[in-house]
Amino acid sequence: MSSSSSGPQQRRGDTRQRIQDVALELFAEQGYEKTSLREIAERLEVTKAALYYHFKTKEDIIISLFDDLTRPIDELIEWAQQQPKTLEMRREVLRRYSEAMAAGASLFRFMQENQATMRELSIGETMKRRLFLLVGLLQAADRPLEDQVRCVSALFTLHAGMMFLQHVEADPEETRQAALAIAMDLIAQAHSHEQ
Question: What pTM does this model have?
Answer without folding.
Answer: 0.79
